[in-house]
Each structure stands twice: as structure tokens, then as C-alpha cells.
Amino acid sequence: MIGAMAKPRPLPPGSPGLTAAAFIARLNALQSDDELRKIRRYFKSDAGEYGEGDLFMGVRMGHLFALADEFVDLEPAGIEALLESPIHEIRAGALSIMGKQAARKATPEERRGELFALYLRRHDRINNWDLVDLAAPNVVGLWLLDRPRDILCRLARSEIVWERRTAAYALFTLMRKRGETADAFAIAELLSGDREDLMHKAVGAVLRMCGGHDRPGLVAFLERHAATMPRVMLRTALEHFPPGERTRYLAMGKA
Description:
This protein has 255 residues and is an all-alpha fold. It has two domains: 1-143, no CATH class; 147-255. The protein has 14 helices and no strands. It has helices spanning 20-29, 33-43, 61-70, 76-83, 88-103, 109-121, 129-141, 150-156, 161-178, 182-191, 197-213, 215-225, 231-237, 243-252. Helix 7 packs across helix 9, helix 8 (150-156) runs antiparallel to helix 9 (161-178) and helix 9 (161-178) runs parallel beside helix 11 (197-213). The longest helix is centred in the middle third of the chain and has 18 residues, at 161-178. 36% of the residues are buried. Mean pLDDT is 91; it is low at 45-52.
């Protein structure tokens, strides 16, 4: 098909080109001044609202994700080297590789455990919503499918918004794979009064998904919390409700 982009082939494990340095060199070749201008217009400044101290090089996300497909077998040590970078796109590449690697059926369980441990240990380098969203569902959520989930409560109680967002995004995998809502409702309860705007839609989306598996449970949750939940969180949770029910709960909610 003319104009279609061929799916990148992963570099074989052990290949001399499968290194953090090679990934950065390839990413540098994709740099675009036009893309950098778009990023700066959107995010105001390199060190502004998007992430404290973040720098940008100007690479389209589609190109970055295609490159991550090629480097999907990068070893955890190489991924950590990428996470050390102050450049946002390089760290986004690291998180994209982690998410893709954790999701692959061919990835050994031991490696998934290494990725989970690396994600938590270097959460200081996962300092933005898009970085969390790239990896938390597969790296954290998949690992916790058959394991204790106490870590989610600890993350949800964190003073760091990105750790709280990790707790929320890991829940999507638990519900998608197993239809489980008990942990999701428990974490949403902890986050229902979160003051950060970035958390409001995320928690609302968790609750909306809960409703797809346990509508009575969501109704009970809303009866307890609709009056105090942030407006965006409540509106997102109610998206699949009939108009009359939405109106009633929104009337209970914060102005």
C-alpha cells in the first residue's frame, strides 16, 4: 500500500545496535525544529507546566513509538540509562520500551519483574502524565494481576502526583483483564478528594470503567462521594449514565 509505514522489526537481543546510546543517536536523527516549536507553543516553556526541569528536542510521538518497537528488547540497564536523560523524549522512549516489553507474550516473567522494580525504583524520573500513561498499565498493572496490590495503596497515598497517577492507571489493566473492581473502588476512594487537576479525569475514568463491570458498586460509590468529588471527576464517572441520573448526581456535586 503506497504511503504505508512498514512495521519496524525489533533489533535482535545481543545486537551491537541495541544500546541506549544507539537509541539516542537514532532519536536525534528524528529531531525536527518545527516539532520543537509546536511543543514549546503547547507547553509554554521547557521547564514549565509540563514537567519541572524537562527539556525537549522536538520528535513526533509516532516516530518515537516506532523507534521503541525496534528497541523493545533493550535490557533494563539500557532503559535506566535512558531514564537518566533530562530530555523528555528520551525518557518517553524508555517508558514506551518498558510498556511494550512488559506486554509482549514472549517476555519472560523474570524480566517483567525487573521492569516493575525498575519503574518503582526510578519513579523520580517518571515525572509527567504521559510518561506514567505509557508504562503504568503494562509494567505495573500486568505484574500485579496475580500478586498482592498493597503497593497501589502506598502509591495512591503518595504526596507525588505522578505516583498517585500510577496507582490509577495500573487499575485499568486489572479491570480490563479480570473485570475486578474491588481494588479500583478502594483506590478511587483514596483519590476521590485529590486536589490535582491531572488526577480528576484519571480517577473519573477508573470509576467509569468500574461501572461497566459493577454498576451497583459505582452507584453506591457515587451516593457516598458525589457531593464532594471534583466536578471533572464526577462528570467523567457519569459518562455512561442516562441523562436523568447524570443530572441528579451533578446537582449533588461541587459547584
